[in-house]
Amino acid sequence: MTRRSCAIYATGIVCAHLLIVGIALVVAQVFQTMIHSRLKKEITLTEKSQMFEGWKNPPPPVYMEYYFFNVTNVEVFLAGGKAVVKQIGPYTYREYRPRENVTFLENGTKVYALNPKTFVFVPEKSAGDPEVDILRTVNIPYVAVMNELDSYSFFLKTLVSMYMNGLGIELFMTRTVHEVLWGFKDPLLSKIHSMKPEVDEYFGLMWKKNGTHEGEFVFHTGEENYLDYGKIDTWNGLREMSWWSSNQSNMINGTDGAVFHPLINRNELLYIFAADLCRSIHLAYVEDVEVKGIQAYRFAPPSDVLMSPKDNPTNEGFCVPAGDCLGTGVLKVSVCREGAPIVVSFPHFYQADPKYINAVEGLSPNKEEHETYLDLQPTTGVPIRACKRAQLNIILKRVQGFPKTKFINETIFPIMFVNETATIDDESASQMRTMLLIVTLVSNFPLLIVGMGIILLLVLVILFCRNRQRTTVKDETAYTQVSSKPDEPSETPANQPMKNGSYIAMSPVEAQKC
């Protein structure tokens, strides 16, 4: 056997093995299964100290952008006209949210943690100085008192209204942005505090929320089921709430939005419990996006999350008392926040009934600026970009006994909205790209084997064709006549017969004469 033949046989054997092994690995999905099993195992908080530290101290910076609606025609609104508002902001704060008092429970299957939040003003990302900029907005303590007295007698409400007028307290107030946001000593609340000490004399939308937490959380670590990773087991000791009017609405579903299980697919719904909204919401897949070179799935709340119960009966449980429902795009949360009739929505009433948008002049909802979304890396489930946007509103209506409300039209009045954003930092993005590259190479290793087998198959075909061509050329011989001339006598040995005529030569050249 020649060297060329040995090379052909060896190439064929290696090619066959590579193709058989590669195709078998592709069909069996051995490497994909191995990677998925590894992810399901190492995603738990107890098995990856690095991931645990990242969970305790998230590296991406979180920014809170506060926008306010400054009322420019209070007198017109009190006289029965349409309010005109002008958006001011943002006033941006860096949010620090480490997890503290972390304690593992039940053999590492659950983890207890507090999540205090601290806010630091960032002037270079802000449109003004909150301690200087003046804001005219609804006097929420005033509305809270009216709301509390709504069921009382007309005589009592009239007395309280006269007393408030004597103090010079109006339905709308003028304060700095810092006061409205972080608190000030309110004259009305101070009077109530003197009679009822349990009532705080300070008011602010974020009063006592700087350096505090939203409650005690117990999370699943995913030790028993990777799909439970990060899901909330209890909040303030509760597995379900009690202030809504249905069991489904009272459920505490999903994570706190900071982590999700790995291997996310486009068809699933993701649940987040929002303590500030007093409810869980779900997010659905929207589109594929790319953030800093990382492929991600974008999830966002679909329109049915805040849809009217008439169009989405599952939302009937958020009507308190039962049957007392608002329209599409708004949710009354005063049931879990005693005091004023607070309503939440998306900014500028995005995805809400047009009647709420048209009730106030100066609103212009759009998807790019007002949609809440979450961009998740599907393999790891890690959020790489997030935008949580919510608007705070208050219900203004006529209340008997309070003459200043005599002419106003009932309105869900916008106060402010917040844009909470976070994007993966460059260092973490680089680490994730490297990790995903390794995962991709390992997952596609069987395809590399098949590819090598195909290349060797092509080499084998080329070698075989060239070898066959060489053999054919070698076997083709020229058949030529020795001579066409008559035989000439020649001296030959006596014992050798004379040859005449023609004979076949084994060479294409002319044969020599005998």
Automatic annotation (TrEMBL):
First-listed, main subcellular location of the protein, grouped into a coarse class: membrane
Location(s), subcellular: Membrane
UniProt GO MF annotations: scavenger receptor activity
Transmembrane portions of the chain: 7-31, 435-464
A biological process from GO: receptor-mediated endocytosis
Cellular component annotations (GO), alphabetically ordered: lysosome; membrane
Region (Disordered): 475-514
Keywords for the protein's UniProt record, in alphabetical order: Glycoprotein, Membrane, Transmembrane, Transmembrane helix
Annotated InterPro entries: CD36_fam, LimpII
Top-rank taxon, per record: Eukaryota
Keyword Cytoplasm: no
Annotated PANTHER family: LYSOSOME MEMBRANE PROTEIN 2, SCAVENGER RECEPTOR CLASS B TYPE-1 SR-B1
Family: Belongs to the CD36 family.
Protein known as: Lysosome membrane protein 2a isoform X2
Taxonomic source organism: Xyrichtys novacula
